[in-house]
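Structure tokens please, single chain.
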Amino acid sequence: MRNILIINGFQPNDVSEGRLNASLVERAAQLLTDAGRRVETSAIAEDWDTDIELEKHARADAVILQFPVHWMGAPWGLKRYMDVVYTAGMDGRLAHGDGRTRQDPRRQYGAGGTMAGKPYLLSTTFNAPGEAFDDPDQYLFRGKGLDDLLFPIHMVYRFFDMRPLPTFAALDVHKNPQVVADFARFDAHLDGAFGLTSVPA
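Here you go.
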């Protein structure tokens, strides 16, 4: 995985300035660059061009999607990016439609991906604390885990025939932030996912 695309999925809002997500993007870019990877970045809050974004995805050996979870999903600006860029990529650059045709409508839905198993990594920030997950006694998630909540975003990348790397989450970032510890965990997570201390592939 020599070429890495990092997408900053933070959308400006009245709750946050996005400093943590920006810091995680910058930290990942620096660590990966220091380890000999070629890094490209995109930011959904800035101007972007659909074809250029698709070219970045084509060049990438792996994609990191960094974003805050808003109302149990992607921020609206990130969803817009996906709606525009990823829909355009269904011309074969990311997928051949949903994989079915009128001549063969029985083929499995979502089987048209053309990314041939490229890895992706979801890195998220949450207001929710860690104890809110994986505990059936918790009021909101009722035993569901982090990746259960992120299932729709995982399916976006599965649609393109990409494969997940383990998800990272910085939790409880508003009421009980642990930024130094989160950065240390993030560094270790990237090392585990990309082998930063080994020779680049």
